[in-house]
Amino acid sequence: MNIIAAILVFGIIIFIHELGHFYFAKRAGVTIHEFAIGMGPTLFKKEKNGTVYSIRALPIGGFVAMEGEDEESDDPNSFGKKTLKERFLSIVAGPLANIILCVLLLIPFYAIVGFPTTTLDIVQKNSPAYSAGLQSGDKLVSINGNSLDSFNDVSKLISGSDGKELTIRYKRGSKDKSTTVIPEKSAGKYVIGINPKYKTDLLKAPKQAIVSTYQISKTMLIFLGQLVTGQLSGKIMDSLSGPVGVVNMVSKAATTGILDLVFMTALISLNIGIMNLLPIPALDGWRIIMLIFEGLRGGKKVPAKIEGYINGIGLIALMGFMLFITYKDIVRLFFRN
Can you give the residue ranges of the PDZ domain (predicted)? Predict the structure, then answer.
């Protein structure tokens, strides 16, 4: 049952991504041969108005096959014959749809679960905050003179402290108090050992969803930057997950409740959206770079055949990387204690 939930999650995320491409391409009048969810052998297909709609066996991707996307075409409705703006929207809509889906899923999540406030719920024993005299129920007001509107502000100021002493103003009941605390490093970031209370507020849930999406996206990009520059430790590298690992995580989330599954779906959708915006051949980000390059050259296109070869090489490289990560997933899940 959990595997079915994982497949449904992937199917929804892929469908939303490809629907973004499909909608704007169709709106521009591009000839679309196939709208596919999944890869590999076709399980189901139906043709309507010249477009084949299909579901394929492997839920690890999908595609919108547009006339003239990777080859030259004389069809006036081919992708290559459309304006730069129309092509740009058709490509960027896929990743943006995933990012928007993340926000939309986080809104009901925060509306039900609530979001972290600046009031403390737990002060961990023997932590810097505990030694500084902070207690459960204290409401943090400012750090080093910076006012605090949300717990995101608290986390940002503590993690960016570089371990230097912080002056924290807070309210305990009706009394204004102040203390100093020196953050300690844990799991690569500075912390002081506090957990916030959560508050439900339907009106603030949309804003919290947008802020969280931005914060998570920023963390993902920093992680990717460290991955490229080789700054990550071997243990973190070993924790990277591919399709098998992600299916395992989704399955576990499905066992703990619908809210955990919704949150995990939002994270995966955002991850796919961010990854597809990277300037790597075969990904949407590379096509966007090519369109920007075309615009800078005054509309002079890179030949579709050459771009097709580059994307083909990129796809082979990505598939190889995916197989490598999948192998690591299988070893980690089935052959390690």
Answer: 111-174
* Residue 51, beta-bridge partner list: 48
pLDDT at 55 over 70: yes
- 23-32 pLDDT tens trace: 999 999 999 9
- State the catalytic residue, choosing from 18, 67, 69, 307: 18
Determine contact, residues 44/55, Cβ cutoff 8 Å. Answer: yes
Which span out of 98-107, 182-191, 300-309 was modeled with the highest average pLDDT?
98-107
pLDDT confidence bin for 13, thresholds 50/70/90? very high
pLDDT tens for 323-332 read 766 666 666 6
Known catalytic residue at 18 = yes
SS3 labels along the chain: CHHHHHHHHHHHHHHHHHHHHHHHHHHCCCCEEEEEEEEEEEEEEEEECCEEEEEEEEEEEEEEEECCCCCCCCCCCCHHHCCHHHHHHHHHHHHHHHHHHHHHHHHHHHHHHCEEEEEEEEECCCCHHHHCCCCCCCEEEEECCEECCCHHHHHHHHHCCCCCCEEEEEEECCEEEEEEECCEEECCEEECCEEEEEECCCCCHHHHHHHHHHHHHHHHHHHHHHHHHCCCCHHHHHCCCCHHHHHHHHHHHHHHCHHHHHHHHHHHHHHHHHHHCCCCCCCHHHHHHHHHHHHHCCCCCCCHHHHHHHHHHHHHHHHHHHHHHHHHHHHHHHCCC
User: 0.85 exceeded by the pTM?
Assistant: no
246-258 pLDDT, tens digit per residue, is 666 666 766 777 8
Q: Domains of the chain by range and CATH?
A: 2-110+262-334 (no CATH), 116-199 (2.30.42.10)
